Amino acid sequence: MSHAAAGRRPYCAVLVVPTGIGAAIGGYAGDALPVARAMASVVDTLITHPNVMNGAQLYWPMANAHYVEGYGLDQFAAGRWGLRPVHRNRIGLVLDAAIEDDLRWRHLQAADAARATLGLDLTDYVVTDAPLGVELRSAASGATWGTIQRPDSLLRAAERAIAAGANAIAVVARFPEDTDAEALQVLQDYRQGQGVDPLAGAEAVISHLVVRQLRVPCAHAPALSPLPLDTSISPKAAAEELGYTFLPCVLAGLSRAPQFVVGPALGLFGGSSGGDSGATLWADQVDAIVVPASACGGSALLSLGRRALAIAVEANPTALAVSPESLGIPAVRVSSYLEAVGLLAAHRAGVHPQALTAQMPQIKELPAQGYLQINPLGR
């Protein structure tokens, strides 16, 4: 019996794996998608983002999972924006003017295949009026980021697509293919399932810009020349070896991505009192958020971690070293995503996790002064 049928409100969880930080799970080609699938099976609603859901030409539809771009997810977590579910979106495809003719045709064929095979709704495509000029950068920690030289051109193209009827934007930008020894080594490490995705940080910059300025769902797929065959590729990176484009997963995700609703900020959260409260999700409806234990400095966790159950997964190391304890966030540490899924299931069921173990201490009298901090896992 569902919680709704039992007279309980739906259980909502957020899954975050930040992009461009070399996460052991979620730092490659959609390799956190199995985590999302497992979590979606034990919650009523899962909110996550393209870095988790995108697997190049591979994806997995989940009726109760919301595909929310990272900037929009941060605004949602802060209570500034709500998420309104949709039956479908009409997607506008924006192509970088820097993409060569042959590579452009490969992406247009992918878009036509999504229309004919999956039945997705796309407007006619738009080519930017200038090359976007994507540049890749990396930090001393190993995390990656990037810039675009012509953000104005990207926004004009996205606005043209919206004027043509699009309410979600898929961007394909031409990414540089560095041939120096250091860049080639970074790429080789990534293909072997060992380093940081060199493209991820710049991809986030592109989608953040569109969502921040135009407040529509957006995701990005890089345009790159196919790589030479390498029979030693890690399974974690293998989804990016399948063809000429990473666009299919972006179009599938955007087709059902929730729309953003801007509501009144009431204290910390916009709350379900804003606007069409019956359908729109707000931050105060989130029950739990799951993040890597070493990457706890993100905006979504900082907004949600003191009121929802925060779960920090230790077996997903990253290039960062930001613990929940260093930020004063009362997170529950778990060893793996398997344990996180079990903790979510128990939390949703209203079962104290310690009741699932062999250790159950006697109840004690509360001290006259102060209070006891009780770890839900009894650690």
Automatic annotation (TrEMBL):
Top-rank taxon: Bacteria
A Pfam cross-reference name: DUF3326
Name assigned to this protein: DUF3326 domain-containing protein
Species, as recorded: Shackletoniella antarctica
